[in-house]
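FW: tagging you since you asked about this chain on Friday. Here's the raw sequence from the shared folder, copied in full. Didn't touch anything.
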Amino acid sequence: MKRFCGAEFWNANLTLHTESPDLTPCFQNTVLVWIPCIFLWVSFPFYHFYLKQNNKGYIMMSVLNKFKTFFGVLLWLICWLDLFYELGKSRVQYPVNIVSPLILGITMLLATVLIQYERLRGVQSSGLLFIFWMLALLCAIVPFRSRIREALDKGVTDQLRFTTFYIYFGLLLFQLILSCFNEKPPLFSSIVTDPNPCPESTAGFLSTMTFWWFTSMVIKGYRNPLEDKDLWSLNKKDTSEVVVPTLIKNWETEKAKVQRKNQAVYSKSSNKVLNHVDGGTEEAEVLLLGKNDTKQPSFLKALLKAYGSYFLIGSVYKLMQDLISFVNPQLLNLLINFTEQKDVPSWWGFALAFLMFFCALLQTIILHQHFQYCFVTGMRLRTAIIGAVYRKALVITNSAKRSSTVGEIVNLMSVDAQRFMDLTTFLNLLWSAPLQIILALYFLWQKLGPSVLAGVAVMVLLIPLNAAIAMKTRAFQVEQMQYKDARIKLMSEILNGIKVLKLYAWENSFKEKVKQIREKELKVLRKSAYLGAVSIFAWTSAPFLVALTTFAVYVTVDDKNVLDAKKAFVSLSLFNILRFPLNMLPQVISSLVQASVSLKRIQSFLSHDELDPDSVDKKNIASGCVVTVVNGKFTWAKSDPATLHSINLMVPHGSLLAVVGHVGCGKSSLVSALLGEMEKLEGEISIRGSVAYVSQQAWIQNATLRDNILFGKPYNAEKYSSILEACALLTDLEVLPGGDQTEIGEKGINLSGGQKQRVSIARALYSEADIYLLDDPLSAVDAHVAKHIFDKVIGPEGLLKDKTRILVTHGITFLPLVDNIVVLVDGSVSEMGSYQELLTQNGAFAEFLRNYALEDVVEEDEAIELEEEEDFPEDTLSNHVDMIDNEPVANEARKQFFRQISVISVDLENPKKMSTRKRKCSERKAAEHPPDKRSSAQKLIHTETAETGRVKLQVFWEYVKAVGPVLCVFICFLYCCQNAAAIGANVWLSEWTSDSVVNGTQTETSMRVGVYAALGLTQGVLVMISSFTLALGGIGAARTLHSALLENKFCTPQAFFDTTPLGRIINRFSKDIYVIDEVIPHTILMFLATFFTSVATMIVIITNTPLFAVVIVPLAIAYFFVQRFYVATSRQLKRLESVSRSPIYSHFSETITGTSVIRAYGRQDAFVLISDKKVDENQKSYYPGIVSNRWLGIRIEFIGNCVVLFAALFAVIEKSKLTPGLVGLSVSYALQVTMSLNWMVRMTSDLESNIVAVERVKEYSETETEAPWIVPDKRPPEDWPTHGKVEFNDYSVRYREGLDLVLKSLTLQVKGGEKIGIVGRTGAGKSSMTLCLFRILEAAAGEITIDGVKISEIGLHDLRSKLTIIPQDPVLFSGTLRMNLDPFEKYTDEDIWKVLELSHLNKFVSSQPAGINHECSEGGENLSVGQRQLVCLARALLRKTRILVLDEATAAIDLETDDLIQSTIRTQFEDCTVFTIAHRLNTILDYTRVLVLDKGQIAEFDTPTNLIAKKGIFYGMAKDAGLA
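HL: got it, structure written out here
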């Protein structure tokens, strides 16, 4: 070195052992010059590669850029000036004077070139150059000081070098300052076009590292609660548009690869089988699958290829952070060393304190960068998985769909995607934890030698304990999830069918069921609380036990081993580093296990069979026929027997084909087969042209009425209005609050069944397809509406007369008007031909007709003439148009699934008197709407408001009351004790280390070890007790809150369920109860632990260095501000995130139920786009949520690092008064505080976000309740009612307070045993009348008496259990058929078989292997609609009370079944009073009397024959139905 730079390289006396240190000139000219250069040259290749990959476009040359470049060139010139100056001398003194300026010059040139290269690549702020300038400046500070000192001492020797250096230094400073500023965004980048871009994309390097760019949102969120519009757009690279295709592309290649491999295996092993023609391949596949040689494509590989590289950047940060975390214990070692030595320069101490601070700071910044990368990867994974699952759900076969319910598929999106997200944060620990453990052990070995092994042994022993606890917890979680799922499923069914439960008085039976499940759930929770307490004991005591055994072994092995402060506290800080990886490993592993389960589930879902797009041939077709089926054999699932066999069909262009047959003979299946929804076993189907499809149960989207009809087609006013006219929708539009801009609720629930069906027909008409497949669209509408639609739309004169139509129908009236009829029997075509041909054949069809054709269909023209003669009063014309139902009840169908809507109630004469809370919807109104309508468009779903602002203390108090105030105080006391014990143990340790050493040994070691052990274990036990007490308190609170909610919901009046979206109530039972069960207790536990630890730390530091009290105030203020800012923003972001999450899932379940419609119209891509948009909306609020945690982390940890800095500084200042033990104690406590502070804020925020659940549950536990179920002193006699005599006295009723009366002062008497038919147009109050009998609606005035008992005085159950109703919509619950008939198990099996026989179900039930224990699926989905209706009949037969109410029960049944029901009722309920709300007038023509209601009043009430003779309203209806 001497030869190279002519002086010594290192001189300790000059540098270390002096009060004013300096470095040798040689060191300054070599090392300090080369460090920044080496950094830049080493990083350059990687950076160049990165820039080549990520080109963001081109940035215009700006003033900033010109200055940077100019200064870069100047720096380069100055370096060369030095070089040439040196070369210009006669002889070069030393090589260093040439080498250093040369290296520096080339590096400056590289930096200048980089400035321009980055500009061309669109880099707005360069991290690499920032670090380079920073390093260069830091390295130049030492020579800067040296040269000034030298000049002051000796004067300036070399003027040129002196001047160039200071210019160089100044330019470096300028470059550093300039590199803090940003360039403008690249040309044509999305940031320029985006209205609200995320500032991250334009943030500078420093801002990115410290997340400073996020501050604007935090301030905004602190001032006002954040709203949707405040959120930034998602970064382009995180949107579905970019993320999902990446994954799908990789998944497809993975699948293709595996397929190729499998085919190779396949061709080897299947030669034998392939000799068969045709069927061979499938058999071979079956054979192969049996052997399990086929490989499944790996979803994991696809994920890794898609997102692995991005995740790796995060891993690199993690590696750096792990290495830096070991620097501080070494510095602590030096600091304690420094306090032990008396005569060392004091700048050592200050240097150490600041080094500790900078190390901690660097560690903080790097750690949060690592987290950011992990979380963003997780977020992209979630987006990608949701996208992939959604796309797959649109194409899977029906059998695949059956193997996983809607709920399960939604779970793939919510739960499984979430698990991947959670895993990404921990995944790096798989390699990082072992690395940290090895490093920690290495440093410990240096301090304590082999004694460390004792500590390691304890750790290793604790691992199986932790693992066992984790395994057990996992098992408990699974068990609890099962109970929870069962409970939610049951609750959702109960709420879906709450009306039926009330009508049948079955609430108690179902309430008990829920309670049983809940008790089991809480039992599991209690078990996991025991486990939790043990695991927390292990978690707090582990580091202590390790330290204890290590120290104990160390001092007892050899008397000469002295435990001094250095060894004790450095070891402690290393043990603390160990604590994290050791505890996290089991968690990571269990989280891995969970994710692998999720991986398998997603993988199997994505590998499901897809519908064969070519099963229906769209190309070649026999001339003249548009639809042909040749030898078709179809099944719903490959494993099932064929549903349709030997089907042969030819439908010529423009003809109308009717498909008829009994219930369950395969009519709908035939339509599905034509759509390509069924598996084709043999034969050919071909269809020429586009298809429109109307399903049997209309599928309506949650969108406006107009959007439902347009279904993505452009709006054409003329065509649109003609279609509305044809579908008889115009009158409905007048009644709907917003005309065709009315928002239709989920599953179309604010439309009546008929309206839904007509909207569905209108959608088909609007699509202008070539072929129309109509699956029984006329059954849901009234007879005259059906006639209107047939004439105007389907029939020979309708809008579709030139199109090909295939109509499944039960209506005989239309059959003479169709071109051809196909009769299906048991899945095959029994006859086919025109109406006349089939009649002459005299086969099954003719028989069918003879039974059902009432006096032959009235000639069309005759009816029309009549209508012209009759002079109807004006309002009678709208008489029977199926209007929006003023009675939420008449249309249970809409409540079949989620009743997401406030039912609209409308006064029919005056559509402007609306009663629903109004909310204007977007003003996109059609021009033709009258202006007064425009303002009243109403939003039905009132978006559930996200709570805003701080949570009221009241809510915390509610929770405290639920736990028990005394218990709460006791818990806090326990926490104080355990922290006292912990401080005691550590103070004792510092005393121990300060024990005087006599002859190289310490005295009293065994006493020291004993007390230390006692204190530590006391702390552990206290922790265990306190966490267990806390968990028990939490479970108690959960039990109280849930049972209050459950009790209240069963006693809530029906009106509440009509106006509250079901999803909202379910949410209280699932999400909010889950939060109260599991999240809140855990959060409180963490909060208390961190709070007390932080307080303990401050106490320890202040006791040792009282000066610290001075800084504690500013630090606390800073902490408080950061905390308040963060909590306000983060809480609101969480709320926004959860509000935007549910639309993803509800849109998804809506899509799944409507896949066949979406596919028929070819709208898959549009729906995929909608779904992606919803996911992006959700991620838009999730992403700031992640960043807010990083923002907080960096700021809080900065405060923590300041605590470390000041603790160390004051220890250095007060060095003389402190023992090394106390310094070690104080600083090692400070090093731990960062974590506690950080978690404390997080927990405060979580607690505030989660405690809202208590508020939400309380709100729904305190809604008003209905009358008592049983009034003890007013119980009616056992056999009441004996006669069935019903009287209405001046009776009026309204739906809810503030609405108009639905029934206005009715007075009538019905004798026991009379049969009464109730008719009237929709909204006349027919259903309301029946509901009043059951007191679902309470009287507004007047009263009803049954057999002389006033029904308003007795308990609801007493009343409802004595009446029987067959409701309009058959509601079944999942469970056995027996449970559905008799939930209280009052009847014997014989009784049940008997009623099944009477209700014509015995054939079906006895064909089921389980008989009456046949499992019904959710909502009775596995029975046909007709069969469900028969089950309701069976229920009625089983109860057989004196009064029977029949509510339009016959709409969805074919005529035969209808006849069966009618005859059963006539025979079995001969002596009962029967009220029938009739759809088909022929059913009530032989009734005793008919009651005609109009606008809630009695219009006519007499025998049917008298009414027809009167020629009033009833006569008009009868004539329409062709009966008069």
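FW: The chain has a mean pLDDT of 83.
HL: agreed, and The longest strand covers residues 625-635.
FW: great, closing this out.
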